[in-house]
Description:
Blueprint (H helix, E strand, L loop, with lengths): L1 H7 L7 E2 L4 E5 L13 H8 L4 H11 L3 H5 L1 E5 L10 E2 H8 L3 H11 L5 E5 L3 H8 L5 E2 L20 H16 L4 H8 L1 H7 L15 E4 L20 E6 L2 E5 L2 E2 L12
Amino acid sequence: EHVADARKAGVNVTVDLYPYTAASSGITNSFPKWAIQGGSAKVIERLLGEERQQVIDELNEAFKTQADGESLYMVSTGGRYPIADGKNIWQLSQELGLSMADTIAKVTVETAAHCSCISFCMSQEDVDYMLAQSNFAIGSDGSGLPMAASENEGKPHPRHFGTFPRFLRLAREKGLCSVEDAVRRMTKLTADMLGMTDRGVLKPGLVADITVFDPEHVADKATYDSPFQKPVGIEHVFIAGKPALLHGQQTEHRLGQFILKH
């Protein structure tokens, strides 16, 4: 309603989202807002100083149950505290014999607040409602990561590997929107939001970024436990008219590039 009202008032509000119920950020996202003011150095200072107990007390309120602890998963500490990699807060607290609040504090101090996490903080009902809005674009908020687990740290969010096929699958299975509208929201709508006029639709003279997929079978395979899985149902991908994927197999071409607004 706020978005609709703002648009009616002439404000150019845009919205994008991904089709997952978990966010991905740093461990300090679980802290009370006041405790992270000033950045990582101030967080550590508070945890080692007189304000520590206040931080712990508020973390105890947020992490009361096993389910609370299982909702915060530590992807990677970048080698700073490997015992935490790939575990949720509940698991690690049991291993360390600490409360979940003290476990979060320990990981934060040991890693100098550099611990990437996945946080299960959204409801599927809310996500589905947002996905059904025809003027909301779909974005991955992800990065181009290697498909081999050995070339990555921990288990990153599956959004890096499955966002767009997942949206197509959910749109098909749940009737969130037509396949045509789903494609528009991943292409033209995004281009329009960014003010890009040279791509976003199939038209002579525009950049030929094309994905050929089977609308009845396209689906994501990446999960939180096993993210390094390619989607199914995507046959070919052309970037600026050149093949990056043919018959489901990556070609020798390396076609990724920064896209400039024209």
